[in-house]
Specification:
17% strand; binds flavin mononucleotide
Length: 200
Amino acid sequence: MGYRIIGLLGSPLPHGNTAKLLDAALKGASDAGCGVEKIEVANLAFRPCREIFYCREHETCAMKDDMTAIYEKFRELDSLIVATPVMTMGIPGALKSFMDRFQVFFMAKYMRKKSLVPKERRAHRRGLYLGISGMKVANVFDGAKMTMSAFFSIIDVQYWDDLLVPDMDTIQDITTRPDLLESAYKRGYEMGRLLVEGSA
Ligand SMILES: Cc1cc2nc3c(=O)[nH]c(=O)nc-3n(C[C@H](O)[C@H](O)[C@H](O)COP(=O)(O)O)c2cc1C
């Protein structure tokens, strides 16, 4: 069985430091034998949740946009990596709006008590959060981590691990820190290995 790991990029920069960290983790997952796909939130056309609550009774959203196909991918993925910079002590607005649109999954899981995620996948879906911040101050990742935990729960992904890189204002270019890219690679590899060997 082929396993699929999605890497979700919250930074608007396709080749920025966050993207490089994500690419390293996805390379690890791929080397471990998983199929990988990168989704860049900045490239998606969608609007924020409008609280129509069509999802109270339906397994999708009333708003038809790029999120419609995303819901299918997120039902089927085997593990998820979310890579994002801290913005305004939380996550970027576009990524937050993306996550808010998963009210579709929230309603199914918590209100109708019928998760949209197939049972055989729920047991092994792991989540990895790769975080970057400009500053090096206490609690800089707290807001993002709370959001990430909630999102992972809603989509039936276990908060498995994170790699938090503060002080990017000093580091500037993450390629000057191969140790950090290596850490991301190793986590991605381990995430993939657990899936592949878990089914052996
Ligand atoms: C709009 C905006 C808001 C930001 N807010 C914060 C913040 O609250 N705390 C912080 O430590 N860094 C903040 N940063 C800095 C980014 O987290 C940092 O520059 C990061 O390295 C960007 O990663 P990227 O270049 O891969 O997108 C902010 C950056 C931007 C553009």
